[in-house]
Structure formats: structure tokens, C-alpha cells
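Predicting holo structure, zinc ion bound.
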Amino acid sequence: MTMFIHLRHLVFTVLAASLAALCSCQREAGRTAADTAAAPPATVTLTSLDTDSYDKRLEDALLEAEIPHAMGDRIRSAGKAVFLPELEAAAAGDPFLSRLVDKQHALPDGYEPDDLVTLDNSGSYRVGRAGLRLRHPAAEALERMAEAARAEGITLTASSAYRSYDYQAEVYARNVRESGQKTADRESSRPGYSQHQLGLAVDFGSITDAFAQTAAGRWIAANGPKYGWVISFPDGYEQLTGYRWESWHYRYMGMPLAVFIEKWFDGIQQYALQFIHAWRNY
Ligand SMILES: [Zn+2]
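Done. C-alpha cells:
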């Protein structure tokens, strides 16, 4: 296990270095009025932070984000010179890539991305139904990932993608009607609190636990982060994320952030986003 973790860190460190250049030229995402009004600061420019200030801010952010001790110790012992540039790279660019959206943190009122594109069956992935939409950078990244899967004989199917506030309201109300509020809240978000409203999240395949055991489910679990896609609600973290295990739900985070999550936060997206949120709002 230890060997595996070390190997994984090594792999992602190498990936981080080789992909940083690739990602810095990523297309600047479209902005809406809501972004400028309510978005968090776009970058974390703190390379000039002196070591004492860094240490204090780090401790406060680790505490506020409730980062487990072992995870925090790894970050502490890496030191400012190593960790801070990687944090800055992970949180740079489009602020919605690293925005914390969970049961306590809503999107800006009326948020709707302005670079949504419609997915179809012309590329390497399949769509579960017509009219699914994603933000442009996520759609491109989905194609890159699906192309790699296809090269290994595996087809990825997007079953649900962008959901507007109004559509999420319908989905949530239906889930409450059919399963009761308590069950609905374990796997469905209230409107305004869904990662699907970001236009950066995809539900793959059957949208059931069975997906985890399919070839596509296993492939994406092993390879998603290499293409910037990270599972949002992993097995065993319901208390942290507020949602039961959803083997089918992945969020596109961009490469620097996906690498950062794998390397420092054991692949747990929620910890990394809570940490970045706490760091930004210091
Ligand atoms: Zn989902």
C-alpha cells in the first residue's frame, strides 16, 4: 500500500511537470455577469508571502478545511517552496474549476455558464440522450479522455451533464417525491448546490452502483485524473461530502488541479476544494 501511494505520487509529480505547460495555454473560459459579481478571486498570488505568514495561513486553512492530520503533515513537511507554487498552479485560471460547490456552498444566484456546447455521438464518447450540454473546456477534456479509453476498447457514455437551476429543481423535487427527503438528499442536490450546474460534471453509464464494476467504471476510476476528471463522491466519504458513494459522477477540474488533488489530498476532491476555499477566504 505504501509502495503504491509513493508510486502514485511519483507518477502524478511527473505528470504535473509535463502537463503544466500544456494547461497554461488552456482556452480562457467564458464569463458571465454572475462570475464577476460573486466568483472567488481568480488566483492565489502569494509567492511573496514570508515563511511565518505562510505557516500561519497554512495552519488556519488546514484547520478550517478539517484536513486529516497525516494529510496536513505531508503538506507541512513539504514546505512553502514546494507546496505554494503547486497550490497557485492548481487554483489559477478559471475560478469555477476549483470552486467549492457542496451542501453548504451554493453557486452565485442565477449562475449559468455561457460557453455550453451540446454533446453528440460524433466523437469518441456516446451520449445517453440527445441535448446533453457541457462547458466547452469540459467537453474537450471529455473527448480527450474518451479517446484514450476507446484506444483500450472501452466506450464512455455520458448519461447526464449540465443541469440548469430550474432543471435541478425538478430533479430534486422528483427524487424527494419518489424516495423521501432523507434518501433524496444523499444523492441529489438542491437547486443552486449542484456540481452539474457548473457545466463541469458528468454522470457516466448506468448512474447506479453497477457502473463501478463495468469496464468503463473501472477504467475511469483508474485513469480519470490523468485527463483532469476526479470522482466527487468517493466510497467511504459520505460524512465528508454529504453524498453517498457515486461511482458514476466525475467533475472536470483541469489538469493542474487534478494532479494537485491526487498528490496532496489522496484523490479526495472535497478535501482539496475545502482547503482552497479556506486558503482563499483567509
Ligand atoms: Zn451527478
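The first helix runs from residue 2 to 24.
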